[in-house]
Structure formats: C-alpha cells, structure tokens
Design brief:
single chain, 80% helix
C-alpha cells in the first residue's frame, strides 16, 4: 500500500508539472514575472509544510552542500524564465520537449563530472534525442534558422542540466529541505533580475490571479511536495523512466487544451526525444545499480 501511494504521488506530481505551460497560457504577464510569482508562492507553501512537519535543518552542518543548492536554485530560476518565454514563442509542447533535453545533457557530461563510466546506451540515447530535436524544430529552422523561441528552449535545457548537476552534488541535504531552499533561491535570483530590468511594480490582471495561485501553490508547491515525498520510496529505474511522463503529458495536454498539434515529422521527433532519453536513463540506472552492488 505504501509503495502504491508513492506511485500515485509521483505520477500526480509529474502530471502537475506537465500542465505548467497550460496554466501559464492563461496568465497575462511576462515570463520572468510569472516565474517570480510562481517561485514566491511555491516557496511560501513549502515553508509552511516544512514548519508543520517540524523538519530538521541541515544547512548549517553542510555549508558546501548548501552552496550547491544555491547555485542549483539560481540555475532553476534562469531555466524557468527561458522555458516560460519559449512557451509563448514556440508553444508548450515543443518548449517542453526542448526543456527535457536537460537530463540527456547531464547523462552526457556525468562521466566527466561524476566520474561515471560512459555507456553505449547513453551515446545512443543522445543521438536519438539530437535527431528528435532536429525533427521537432525542422519547421522553425527551415523558416529562418534559429529563432529566439527555439534559443530559449535550448537554453532552458542547458540551465536545467546545470540545476541537476549541482543538485546532485548536494548529497547531504535532500527531500523537502532541498526543494524549499532551491525554490527560495530561485525566487531571489528571479527577483533580482526583475528588479534590475523593470523595477518592483508588477500589475496583475484580475483574470490572471487564479491561474497564478494554481501555478504557484498547486503545480509548484503541492507538486514539489508530492515529488520529493515519493521518490525515496520508489525504485531508481521507475523514477527515471516514469519521469518522462511529464514532457509527454505536456505535449498531449497542449494538443488537447491549446490545439497545438504536431506535424508528422514533429511527432516522430517527440518519440525520438522521449524514447531516447528514457532509454539512456534506464540503462544508465541499471549499470549504476549493478556497479554499486558489485562494489558492495
């Protein structure tokens, strides 16, 4: 029963994350303003949960790990600003597919950064994702090269990879505490950027208030809580493979709700991206588990 509840929470979190672009499409604000308010409300919600659960604070004991979380949080804030800008310029589905090239970048550089062994599955997965990105973005490339929207999608993936790498280095601070400080750091980073570029005044249209609350409290706060409270009780391979339900749900929901239909070549690209990334992650996880068991 406990394991089943973890599956349910994890899948619910992924579906919430996958609907981020849908909810954001109803918010009449700039991308950095949306991310600013999202990280603010999400951080406050996670802080409330953290205090209610009387969680232990580890940041004073592990300052280096806290530094990694700060860097990871800054990268996450930047990544989200690029992602939400890509949503408006190239659509939710395509932006989400570009964003989820981030884990593949991490797999590719892990042999250098984390001294993991390179595996043929990672190389094949990367090639599949690369071909998929070319297919998905072929209409934009053929119509004038690299658009700003496509650039934002690529940069969201790069910063997502930076976020994952530094978060992975923070081995002593995990779970809800990790999520709380990372999200709070993202808020500070985005707040500084917004303050420099446009000042403190943000005018929120009345019709955008409800979707902002949903995005911040439900999609971000509740989503992060469900995610981090479930992954510890699930097999590594399950977390790795089921994680790609998020971009898949984003593509499906964008088609159903927003009418963003992919062309035939783009659908093939979506399959190559999600399939290639999941394939590389699955076999990488299996190799790491076998190597860990052999060493033990």
């Amino acid at each position: 029963m406990y394991l089943n509840s973890n599956y349910i929470k994890y899948i619910a979190a992924l579906l919430l994350f996958g609907s981020n672009g849908i909810v954001a499409s109803y918010i009449a604000l700039s991308s950095n303003e949306i991310v600013l308010l999202r990280t603010l409300t999400g951080s406050l919600f996670l802080l409330l949960i953290f205090l209610c659960l009387h969680e232990e604070v580890h940041i004073r004991r592990y300052p280096q790990d806290f530094l990694y979380i700060v860097i990871s949080g800054i990268a996450m804030g930047i990544s989200w600003m690029f992602l939400f800008e890509a949503y408006t310029r190239v659509g939710v589905g395509i932006a989400s597919l570009a964003y989820y090239c981030g884990p593949v970048i991490v797999m590719l550089v892990s042999p250098i950064i984390f001294r993991e062994k390179i595996h043929i599955s990672i190389v094949l997965g990367f090639i599949s994702v690369l071909l998929g990105m070319i297919c998905v973005n072929s209409p934009f490339i053929s119509n004038g090269g690299l658009s700003f929207g496509l650039f934002c999608g690529i940069m969201s993936a790069v910063m997502y990879a930076v976020m994952l790498i530094f978060n992975k280095k923070a081995t002593k601070i995990q779970g809800l505490e990790n999520s709380l400080f990372q999200l709070s750091t993202s808020f500070v980073a985005v707040a500084v950027f917004t303050l420099i570029t446009q000042g403190v005044a943000i005018s929120i249209p009345a019709e955008s208030i409800l979707p902002l609350i949903i995005l911040g409290v439900v999609n971000t706060g509740v989503g992060c809580y469900l995610y981090f409270s479930s992954i510890g009780g699930l097999p590594v391979q399950t977390v790795a493979i089921c994680g790609y339900l998020e971009p898949l749900s984003a593509v499906v929901l964008s088609a159903i709700v927003l009418g963003e239909c992919l062309s035939g070549i783009q659908e093939i690209g979506a399959v190559l991206i999600i399939g290639g990334a999941a394939f590389g992650e699955l076999f990488r996880s299996r190799k790491l588990i076998r190597e860990h068991n052999a060493e033990g």
